[in-house]
Design brief:
Shape: globular
Number of helices: 19
Helix content: 40-55%
Oligomer: single chain
Radius of gyration: 24 Å
Strand order of the largest sheet: 1-2
Structural class: mainly alpha
């Protein structure tokens, strides 16, 4: 399947038809509908010259470089890691000397432009909290400098000049080696480093190279890096990476397969409007398959985590399967849930999902209130305590505050109570204040994804007497979504992994549900108006 194949069905079809079609597509896709990653593809291009399809990846690398010389999506801080990856991969190809003169010239120019961007970075910058950036950034800087050769002339690669790269402000060049030393003395590498193995692979002894089946940590980059360190795994890496490349037109996403995340998030989004009867058996099957008393992992080779576990409990409850939230206990730290064992920074959205899961479960099993009621109360306090003064929330798994705010507001509105209600109304006020003139919302520009989140914030904050500012905002949003949503729409990458990515099916589900909720709101308003005219 080509990466350009749209997940959408025609807009003219009904919500039930489109939702059922989306569920069917997600059920049939063994990999998941997600945007390819420049970072990940460049890492494979650099580390795996033995993998078929290199010309396609070189072309992609050259085509994706922006006019300013950087790679990646989003503002410049988000482009740091993709640009480092792009420069290093181009240098690796140049050093192999296997390309034509024309391609060599283009790669040389691309490297010089990318180096200019990297050398002009500000000394200090608020870098985004993406996965293992503290290891991946200095590791790539070291690899680039090694390939540049001379500290001053860059003579190792013809046509590449200038000084070596400094480690950007806020990062430490010794971080990868320190991590490797810590776990070398311990005698094993924790699973949490498998997904980003390429950042420390060259620093650890062969005995610590993970010996697991399939993609290492669900990551093509980590898998290619492991094959470099352990040639005995190369044959299996070729098979595993070729299968992923076939799904993504020769390129690579940051995690594969993404079926668990995709199915849980799609199901939860559609359930916010309603799950069509035709889709219910499939979603119920997902819930039965994914729920695990030992905890749920988002993809094979990853650690079990609270976010996916909470979503599995929630989706099961939504389709009538009151599976016990007990697997979440593994991640509870006394006040809230850690995403995974050994987490450095907490996640607002993971805890919002946990609160939703507990509330939904308690509605079906009120006798469990003694066990889970206190947990839910603590989560409510923890979430409201992290609300920003302006009224919104932010989170490490998504670049947009509208995602974190929508998740928090949904959970708090379902939990109820005066404390939660105040937080919800404050979030709604922030949302109306930040709407763009065209009826959309967006942290960097108008997007249908973020507009869908904003719609759900305002609908969660709805009161028996609708507030005029909310009504106007929702009317404008409905007009925007009607005009902007169309089959094959390319969604900007806003989700955090190692870099930004876009889970297409999940976003489609969020937008589809928001449009259905707006349609139902409009229909209810028309019915109420008809009743009032009849009574008059």
């Amino acid at each position: 399947m080509s990466i350009s194949t749209p997940i959408s069905t025609p807009i003219g079809t009904s919500y039930a038809e489109r939702a059922t079609s989306l569920v069917a597509r997600a059920d049939q896709d063994r990999w998941g509908s997600v945007s390819p990653s420049l970072y990940e593809t460049a890492r494979v291009l650099s580390a795996a010259p033995w993998l078929p399809g290199e010309p396609r990846r070189i072309t992609y690398l050259l085509e994706q470089q922006a006019s300013d010389g950087s790679w990646g999506e989003g503002p410049l801080p988000y482009r740091l890691l993709p640009t480092l990856s792009g420069v290093e991969a181009a240098l690796a190809v140049l050093r192999r000397g296997t390309t034509s003169a024309e391609v060599t010239g283009r790669l040389t120019a691309a490297v010089n432009r990318g180096l200019d961007v990297l050398r002009s970075l500000p000394p200090v910058c608020p870098w985004p909290d993406t996965a293992a950036a503290e290891i991946l950034v200095p590791s790539l800087v070291a690899e680039i400098n090694e390939k540049l050769g001379s500290p001053t002339t860059g003579e190792d690669v013809p046509g590449i000049g200038g000084p070596r790269l400094p480690v950007p402000g806020g990062f430490h060049g010794s971080a990868p080696a320190r991590v490797a030393e810590r776990y070398e003395s311990a005698g094993s590498l924790p699973v949490k480093f498998h997904h980003t193995f390429e950042g420390i692979g060259s620093y650890i002894p062969p005995a610590l190279v993970p010996d697991v089946e399939g993609l290492l940590g669900s990551s093509p980059a980590a898998t290619a890096a492991r094959a470099t360190r352990s040639p005995a795994t190369t044959a299996q890496a070729v098979a595993d990476l070729t299968a992923v490349a076939q799904r993504y037109d020769g390129l690579f996403p940051e995690a594969a397969p993404l079926r668990v995340v995709e199915r849980l998030w799609v199901a939860a989004a559609l359930a916010r409007a309603h799950l069509p009867a035709a889709a219910l058996p499939t979603v119920r099957g997902w819930a039965e398959e994914i729920y695990d008393p030992q905890g749920v992992r988002g993809a094979p080779g990853l650690m079990t985590d609270a976010d996916d576990t909470a979503m599995a409990v929630l989706v099961a409850s939504l389709v009538g399967l009151p599976y016990d939230p007990a697997p979440l206990d593994l991640f509870h730290n006394g006040s809230h849930y850690d995403c995974y064992i050994g987490e450095d920074t907490g996640s607002v959205t993971a805890n919002a999902h946990a609160l939703q899961a507990l509330v939904s479960y308690l509605r079906r099993c009120p006798t469990a209130d003694d066990t889970y009621g206190p947990r839910a109360a603590k989560l409510c306090d923890w979430l409201t305590g992290r609300q920003q003064p302006e009224g919104h929330w932010t989170d490490k798994w998504h670049a947009s505050p509208y995602y974190a705010t929508a998740r928090s507001v949904t959970a708090l509105a379902q939990y109820g109570g005066h404390h939660a209600s105040r937080a919800v109304q404050s979030a709604a006020a922030w949302t109306t204040d930040t709407q763009r003139a065209d009826g959309s919302w967006g942290v960097w520009g108008s997007t249908v994804e973020e507009t869908a989140y904003a719609v759900k914030i305002l609908l969660s904050a709805a009161t028996p007497t609708p507030r005029p500012q909310h009504t106007r905002a929702l009317d404008l949003a409905e007009t925007y979504l009607r005009a902007a949503s169309h089959p094959g729409h390319q969604h900007p990458a806003l989700w955090h992994d190692k870099t930004l990515y876009a889970p297409t099916a999940v976003i489609e589900a969020e937008v589809l549900a928001a449009r259905e909720l707006l349609r139902a709101r409009r229909a209810a308003a028309c019915t109420e108006a008809d009743v009032e005219r009849t009574d008059a």
